[in-house]
Amino acid sequence: MERQFERIHEMGFDEVDLTDNHDGATLGVEYGFSASISLECHPQEIRQMLSAHELTLSSVCAHANLLDPASPARYQTAQIIKAIKLAHYLGVKQVITTEGEPRTDFGRRLTYEQQLFAIADKLHEPIRWAEEFSIELLIEPHGPLTDSLEGMQAILDILDHRLIGLNLDTGNVWLGGGDPVEFVHRFGSRIKHVHWKDLGPEWESKRGKQFGCGMGSIPLGDGKVPVRKTCAALRKIGFSGPTTLEVAGTKSVQESVLRLKAWDG
Questions:
Q1: Which of 96, 140, 148, 251 is the most buried (most CB within 10 A)?
Q2: Which domains does the chain have, with CATH numbers?
Q3: Integer Cα distance of 128 and 122 in angstroms
């Protein structure tokens, strides 16, 4: 993880998200072949890494599985609460989560109303902790409900809390069959963070069938996602929150930065 922070600093960035994390300990971290942070680690360990590479933290990611049955083996309510507590001790005001794609027959058989209830049930206690620490709990499009305007609206309605907002992921919305520009028009000021990524023509056959992906491998503007129009729409509503580049490859990252700056005027 420290090498990731170091590389981000080398590319000229001064903010970073805390992405992969886990409960307890993991052998991969102990032996140096997994870049993940324990939700139980002392926050000073993270502060020291950030300070060493002149970085500040903008969010803690807690992408979850909210549609399958509750289980100690799944990243769900308990882990989101731990992420909120860790964010608090690090002075971070945003935690990002999502429902994910069900992997069990139980989860795949849920009706639309049952899906909404499952999400509300698993986020009820995390919302109470977010309220305790005044942390924004942001929902990212990364699943069968959140990738659609109607599904995201229904989730916001059922959760009905001032600290619940959106992390707009441009690539995920497009991949799920939606339009990120329409998300900006619908949700406006509820968008508190943006994940930027573009996807090439090889992804078109997967639209509406796959819910979310980790990174784009091309510079913003080279693919099918309307990232430039999304940038313009965000500028029009006065968006001023943090944004994250989910772009792989040094050259693609650097070109994406130049383009975002040009589009943003």
A1: 96
A2: 2-263 (3.20.20.150)
A3: 12
Helix (H, G, I), strand (E, B) or coil at 173: helix
Task: Give the tokens for residue 79.
Answer: 């882990």
Q: Pick out the chain residues at pLDDT < 50.
A: none
| 3-class DSSP assignment, residue 165 | strand
Distance CA 123, CA 125 (A): 6
DSSP string, 33-100: S---EETTS-HHHHHHHHHHTT-EEEEEE-----SSPP-TTS-SHHHHHHHHHHHHHHT--EEEE---
Render pLDDT for 139-150 as a digit per residue (tens, 0 to 9): 999 999 999 999
- Which of 188, 176, 117 lies closest to 141 in space, CA to CA? 176
Rounded to an integer, what distance in angstroms lies between the CA atom of residue 95 and that of residue 81? Answer: 10
Question: CA 60 → CA 22, 80, 148, distances in Å?
Answer: 12, 10, 24
